[in-house]
Amino acid sequence: MSTLENTVYSRNKIHPQKFALLVSCASVVMLFAALTSAYVVRQAAGNWLEFPMPVLFLYSTLTLIVSSLTLHFSYKGFLAGNVKSYKYLLLLTFALGVLFIYLQYKGWMALVSMGVELGTNPSGSFLYVLSGLHAAHILGGLAAVFVAILHAFILPYEVSAKRKLRFEMTQIYWHFVDILWIYLIVFLWLQQQS
Amino acid sequence: MANVLTAAPHSEEDVLIEQMGYDDHFHEHHDGDKFQSNFITTYIFSQDHKMIAKQFLITGMFWGVIGGLMSLVFRLQLGFPEESMAWLKPVLGKWIEINAETGMGALSPDFYYALVTMHGTILVFFVLTAGLSGTFSNLLIPLQLGARDMASPLLNMMSYWFFFLAGVIMFISLFLNTGPFSGGWTAYPPLSALPQASTGSGAGMTLWLISLVFFVVSVLLGGINYITTVLNLRTKGMNMWRMPLTIWAFFVTAILGLLSFPVLASAFFLVMCDRGLGTSFFLNEIFIGGQALDHVGGSPVLYQHLFWFLGHPEVYIIILPAMGIVSEVLAVHSRKPVFGYKAMVFSILAIGFLSFIVWAHHMFMSGVNPFISNFFVVFTLIIAVPSAVKVFNWIATLFGGNIRFTAASLFGIGFVSMFISGGLTGIFLGNSAIDIQMHDTYFVVAHFHIVMGVAAFFGMFAGVYHWFPKMYGRFMNETLGKLHFWGTMVGAYLIFWPMHYIGMAGVPRRYYRFDTFQSFSQFDDMNKFITIAAIVTFGFQLILIINFFYSIWYGKKVTEKNPWGATTLEWTTEVDPGHGNWAGKLPVVHRWAYDYAKDGQDFISQITPLKEGEIETH
């Protein structure tokens, strides 16, 4: 840590750790870009089972969007000195994240009851793989939000450069996995229409 | 300021850093260096980029020896299929099958395929990716940019240990009862996706996949760090156009790795699902032993697309660092500025970009639509343009130079030779029509071994000989280095040149033996010759290893900071730089990295300010 802080020059517009996070987001984008393009190629090859998307995935999408908003306003509260909204909106974000995972799980169960299991047809397998890998990234985001909660409730309140950076990075990642899911759900919806 | 470690200035450069350097208050914060306080933090879980570079290099050398020895075993089988291999039984155990009647020992065909697979995997990933780019990106990015360390030393350390873990798992797979994975380093399904497909497809493939997933994590952690460091932690005055070509090469390499390795990870993830969870991404209506499997509807070609989307950038991940190292080494040792610096940079960028849109040239014979092949042929051949620009510029850099024929510069020149020879055959293979005859023959083996195997090794050797004084404060033995060079240069051509002829005649690669093919028996002597050449060339590599380890402890000591007379920043540090690299202030950069033979001076360091009226070269 100390090496880093000492080598950061004032002329840097963006903190190296934040930049590193953005770069790693780029690699996650490539992971999902590969899978969704594989989806397109595989779908075009035929033998593709069509099934309606469980409506639960719509609810989970809305949950995730709301969680991004709560995190955003928690950050606003953190900056403005509104400690209460900072702390409790953070807790709410975490709860919404857990709810999202739960809704995804219910969505998978709905698929199973429809007869679309993991191995039934590549169309279903892709849905499980895409949403499953995304859920794994959400778990990482939940860990980050959990650390932010620990900071909020254990450390004394202060708006230092270090705390701000940590919070910003949590926020960037959470919004990133949120947008990633929106991309996936829109992609899946569009592919089902085609 | 009492505890600031300020070395007494004793050279012109020291005075410059002292007077004009950038004070980042680094040493004031270091009360007792927690980074190098005991044996474990100094040598094992080190967060210092220089130590991590050495760890990558030595681990890479270990794997280089293992992978090289494997190739000798299967070369013995190819060259001397009639000779008994019983003498290898103490090492290879049950993989040498003894004929009860004649007492002849033969290499098990299963293990032959496992050896070929492991040789490829180890050399491509562990030696030429981690050992080459891991070593030199770590060593040079902070030193040549004037940074105290990487952006995140912790992630950097983890990058090495994930690589180490990948190696341990792969090593364990060598000792499995069913043997390591044997379906080729590309791990095409169905051999990779069906555990019952071959002996190595079971536990061997499982360990192979786990190992490579760890390896992908290692590459990503390293790449994130390299990119962030290059963009964020350059010292004052070090703008992008003043960066040495080494840094440009490592930078683009890291971007390629960061964008292509996740795609490989996604392919591996789908393979894992096919293996364990009953999905059919890559499997379609397969019968094993007359029994139909459950899998329907998958596409093995889809795996090939995903794999080669990594696979092709991967060969540039291997060759670009070597190109960067060679550009630097050739400029320093010919005492001339690199010819066409900006053209070199744009060539690196162009190669990096094109590497993402040529992957299907590995799949011309996989049933890809021939009209789509046309697209990939065109872009593949366009890569010849930036490559030719680079070759021209290296030769122009050497031309008329005051060349010092050190081991480092010899390997640099050897690299250019290898890159030309191997590159030209690439133009043959890039044509989808010619590829119908050439694909999967020894012509392909010869092509990629010369252009990305031997050439990348030459770049690595040039780097090792050139920066060894920076790594260990001692020189490697020059005589042994030159002996190593000539043995390797001649040996590599003797191994791979004949393979072109064998390949043009249509001899397929990866075959265990050819005695059922009458028309190939004419190449028996050539195969013997190649095997002998391979053994002798491998022997020459032992010279490097002895020289390397002997020189660490007993080599000639480096007495001056800048033994090669180079302009770049790594030579302005102490001979053996501690953590933080510069004892006092950080150097400030005033000019590009290649001011050799300018204004009657042999070289002008990057930290020397421009003189009145002097125009900066680019």
Interface with most residues? A-B, 40 and 55 residues
Poorly predicted sequence stretches spanning 5 or more consecutive residues of chain B? 1-8
Assembly form of the protein: heterodimer
Number of helices of chain B: 17
CATH superfamily of chain B: Cytochrome c oxidase-like, subunit I domain
- The count of β-strands of chain A is 0
Biggest beta sheet attributes of chain A: none
Number of domains of chain B: 1
Count every helix of chain A, treating DSSP H or I runs of 4 or more residues as helices: 6
CA distance, first residue to last residue of chain B = 39 Å
Structural class of chain B: mainly alpha
SS-based structural class of chain A? mainly alpha
Major β-sheet annotation of chain B: 2 strands, antiparallel
What is the number of E strands of chain B? 6
Q: Order of helices and strands of chain B, N to C? A: HHHHEEHHHHEEHHHHHHHHHEE
Backbone CA Rg of chain B: 25 Å
Would you give the CATH topology of chain A?
Four Helix Bundle (Hemerythrin (Met), subunit A)
Q: Termini separation of chain A (Å)?
A: 50 Å
What does this 3D model show about the protein?
The complex is a heterodimer of chains A (194) and B (618). Chain A has 194 residues and is mostly helical. Chain A has one domain (58-193): Four Helix Bundle (Hemerythrin (Met), subunit A) (Up-down Bundle), CATH 1.20.120.80. Chain A has six helices and no strands. Chain A is elongated. Residues 1-10 of chain A have low confidence and may be disordered. In chain B, 59% of the residues lie in helices and 3% in strands. Chain B is globular, with a radius of gyration of 25 Å. The model of chain B is unreliable at 1-8 (pLDDT under 50). In chain B, strand 5 (596-598) and strand 6 (601-603) form a beta hairpin. Chain B has a two-stranded antiparallel sheet. A two-stranded antiparallel ribbon of chain B has the order 3-4. A two-stranded antiparallel sheet of chain B has the order 5-6. Chain B has one domain (46-281, 297-561): Cytochrome C Oxidase, Chain A, CATH 1.20.210.10. Chain B has 618 residues and is an all-alpha fold. Chain B has helices at residues 12-20, 39-44, 49-79, 89-92, 109-145, 153-173, 203-232, 245-276, 300-334, 341-354, 370-382, 384-398, 407-429, 432-438, 442-472, 478-504, 524-554, and strands at 96-98, 105-107, 287-288, 291-292, 596-598, 601-603. Classes of the chains: A mainly alpha (194), B mainly alpha (618).
